[in-house]
Design goal:
Elements lengths: L2 H21 L3 H14 L7 H20 L3 H6 L1 H26 L4 H10 L5 H10 L6 H22 L7 H19 L1 H8 L6 H19 L4 H16 L3 H25 L3 H6 L1 H15 L3 H7 L4 H8 L4 H12 L5 H22 L8
Helix pairs in contact: 1-2, 1-13, 2-13, 3-12, 3-13, 5-6, 5-8, 5-15, 6-8, 6-18, 7-8, 8-18, 9-11, 9-12, 11-12, 15-19, 16-17, 17-19, 18-19
């Protein structure tokens, strides 16, 4: 293990936290930027332990995205969340596919992976902005969150369907998911009552074990590991949401160490030369993404009339899940290094630009 690289990466996590707090910018954006500097300026190498923790971080981020799904919230706002969520997912996906078809000769699966990464709406950004403006208890905020959940679900499931391979292992995957769902519903609360709140943190260990097991089976089934992680989070959501203390422990582990390493590693994979030589492509993808996501404005005027433009801008952002999709696409060979750099920069700009505008259109008196 290279102690120089390891010390730099760990120190960067603390620096990113401070900068994020001072600049009031999402920590993931700062961490990616630091990763770019580490690899392209300081020539820091990606160590094996960074690869491992980044992979685990990506799985846990996807798992937590599934856990955030509130079934009651979706049921209470089913029609607007599904209609707007599908449109705000399909529009940029089709727009990106058409643009890449006209501009490149890349394989279809590559274009699909990039389109999916840029179709995401960031639940982390949405939560942050709504919380900053004290809107979390409003009907507007709850509908926006429901729409974001639908978009994230479609994005992650979409990646699993790019190269579907159905076999006996696929059947086993769904059987295991059903068994885990039954276990979480009937026995998990009892286990926490019997063994929870101990130094050994048995309940956290169990969730980690289930996550890695289902991710492994999902990968072997050809559905990719993040599909299994999201499915586990989705099936466990109602149970885990009743144990907020457990979720808080997992969030501490993820957002203190694993998520920062995931984003720093993603930044270290970005090539500045690739970005500079493909500026026109990045601007094109960014423009197509923002304009196509803006097509939901008409629907927002119907169902989110008290903050239609605000909602449209907020739903145009994409970050965490998009980065996970892009990183997974690169790791499984759907996206090469140059395409990864283009996609990541487009995702970041697609989050930053709407956020620069959205604060000017915060709805009043809601």
């Amino acid at each position: 293990m290279d102690l120089y690289s390891s010390a730099i990466v760990i120190s960067s996590i603390a620096i990113a936290g401070v900068l994020s707090s001072r600049l009031r910018v999402s920590s993931s954006i700062i961490e990616v930027a630091i990763g770019v500097a580490l690899a392209n300026v300081l020539a820091v190498k990606i160590e094996q332990w960074v690869e491992f923790l980044a992979t685990l971080g990506g799985l846990l981020l996807t798992f937590l995205a599934g856990v955030e799904v509130e079934s009651r919230l979706l049921k209470s706002r089913l029609k607007p969340s599904v209609v707007i969520g599908v449109v705000i997912f399909i529009a940029p996906l089709v727009g990106i596919l058409l643009s890449l078809t006209l501009l490149t000769d890349w394989p279809l699966n590559t274009k699909l992976a990039i389109g999916l990464a840029l179709s995401d709406t960031s639940i982390a950004v949405v939560y942050t902005v709504l919380a900053e403006h004290g809107m979390m208890r409003t009907e507007l905020a709850k509908t926006i969150i429901a729409v974001t959940i639908v978009t994230n679900m479609l994005t992650i499931v979409g990646l699993g369907l790019i190269e579907p391979r159905f076999s006996e292992i696929t059947i086993m995957l769904f059987m295991v998911l059903v068994l885990i769902a039954l276990f979480m519903k009937r026995y998990f609360s009892r286990l926490i009552s019997a063994y929870g709140n101990r130094m050994s943190e048995i309940e956290v260990r169990l969730v980690f074990a289930l996550l890695l097991l289902i991710s492994f089976i999902s990968d072997k089934a050809g559905m990719y590991s993040i599909f299994g992680a999201f499915a586990l989070g989705l099936l466990s959501a109602d149970t885990l949401q009743r144990h907020e203390h457990l979720l808080n422990k997992m969030r501490v582990i993820v957002f203190t160490l694993l998520a920062p390493i995931f984003f720093i590693r993603a930044g270290m994979l970005i090539s500045i030369n690739a970005v500079l030589s493909n500026t026109a492509m990045i601007l094109t993808l960014l423009t197509v993404k923002i304009l196509s996501k803006s097509s939901c404005y008409i629907l927002c005027r119907r169902w989110l009339s008290e903050g239609a433009f605000f909602s449209t801008l907020l739903l145009s952002t994409g970050l965490t899940v998009g980065m996970v999709i892009a990183s997974t696409g690169r790791d499984i060979g759907l996206i090469d290094d140059e395409q990864f750099s283009i996609t990541m920069v487009s995702i970041i700009l697609g989050a930053v630009i709407p956020l620069m505008i959205v604060r000017r259109y915060t709805p009043r008196n809601i």
